[in-house]
Amino acid sequence: MPKEQIIAEIKKLKKEKNVLILAHYYQDKDIQDLADFVGDSYNLSVKAAETSQDIILFCGVHFMAETAKILNPNKKVILPDTNAGCSLASSCTYEEFNAFKALHPNAVVVTYINCTADIKTLSDYICTSSNAVKIVNSIPLDKDIIFAPDKNLGAYVQKECNRPLILWNGTCIVHEAFSFQKVLNLYLENPNSKIIAHPESEAHILEMAHFIGSTSAMIQFMKTDNTKTYIIATEAGILHQLEKEIPHKKLIPAPIHEENTCACSECAFMKVNTLEKVLNCLKNEVPEIILDKETMDKARLPLQRMIELCKS
Ligand code: 13P
Ligand code: SF4
């Protein structure tokens, strides 16, 4: 089927079935363009929690769709492909994390939203890249804190909050791929540029960065800052919104160690979602996120604590 026909069919079905389509900034640009809302992990969770539409079609990765289901359990939540995983979520299994927790029985557990529903049930607070510093700062200084599963985000939060965290050893394969030397060379070639990095990046990239923030925060910064050229250390999907919002600025994706066609970093998990799969998912209303009530009820508590803290 030609692309235009697939898009028209998606729009028709979406209306007929009263579906909210959510998409993360790392989705393919055609998917971003047909979504009702494009955002970062935090904004997408809030949208999912608040919607009154019958079905949520989540164009992102599995943990994001699961989070939407936990926050709005009476809605049907579908995602285009259940293979849309995440290296951070898969680095942290229930059994291993439970054993890790047992080594630090008095620690408060702050978990990055990039984890499974089971891991959320073991957590006191969930955070996203946009609020991790705020969440950790809200915990009394005399408490030990476990921070999982992203050790790079954890190291960044540790530095910002000036307190030690007990870190789980997980990483995002997309953000750890940036080459320090290549980013530095690019900056030396563009001395008037600014380096903008996501906090899932390694410390040597963050140390070079002029601005560090979630995908939404990065976009907001580049929209309001008056620099003309940016070197952007996050997944290349973000460039689509930036090209629409700030077409007059020069956007250079930060290069990775390995050579690839675009020399940028792409999340293969995010990119398993295609327009064809979105259409099939809308037609058949599968794959659907199914979770038991007990898991959802337990996993919702640390998510709600995050949302409450972010309101203030
Ligand atoms: P944010 O959406 O919080 O910027 O996180 C990026 C990411 O890697 C999501 O998987
Ligand atoms: Fe996971 Fe990294 Fe892909 Fe985000 S970009 S879904 S953190 S692997």
Provide tags for this entry.
Rossmann fold; binds 1,3-dihydroxyacetonephosphate; 15% strand; 15 helices; 4-stranded parallel β-sheet; 3 domains; 312 residues; 12 strands; binds iron/sulfur cluster; alpha/beta; globular
Describe it for me?
Strand 1, helix 2 and strand 2 form a beta-alpha-beta unit. This protein folds into three domains: 104 residues, Rossmann fold (3-Layer(aba) Sandwich), CATH 3.40.50; 101 residues, Rossmann fold (3-Layer(aba) Sandwich); 74 residues, NadA-like (Rossmann fold, 3-Layer(aba) Sandwich), CATH 3.40.50. It is of the alpha/beta class and 312 residues long. It has a four-stranded parallel β-sheet with strand order 2-1-3-4, sandwiched between helices. A four-stranded parallel β-sheet has the order 6-5-7-8. 44% of the residues lie in helices and 15% in strands. Bound molecules: 1,3-dihydroxyacetonephosphate and iron/sulfur cluster. The site of 1,3-dihydroxyacetonephosphate has 10 residues, from loops. The site of iron/sulfur cluster has 14 residues, from helix 5.
Fraction in beta strands: 5-15%
The distinct ligands, each listed once, are:
1,3-dihydroxyacetonephosphate, iron/sulfur cluster
**Beta strand count:** 12
Give the N-terminus to C-terminus distance in angstroms. Answer: 48 Å
What's the overall geometry? globular
Question: Could you say what the CATH topology of the largest domain is called?
Answer: Rossmann fold
| String of helices and strands | HEHEHEHEHHEHEHEHEHEHEHEHEHH
Number of discrete helical segments: 15
Low-confidence stretches: none
| Rg, Å, rounded | 19 Å
The CATH class designation of the largest domain is: Alpha Beta
Give a quick account of the main beta sheet: strands, pairing sense, barrel closure.
4 strands, parallel
Within CATH, the superfamily of the largest domain carries the name NadA-like
For the largest sheet, list the strands in their spatial order: 2-1-3-4
Mean pLDDT: 97
Main structural class: alpha/beta
Helix content range of the residues, please?
40-55%
Total count of domains: 3
Write the CATH architecture name of the largest domain: 3-Layer(aba) Sandwich
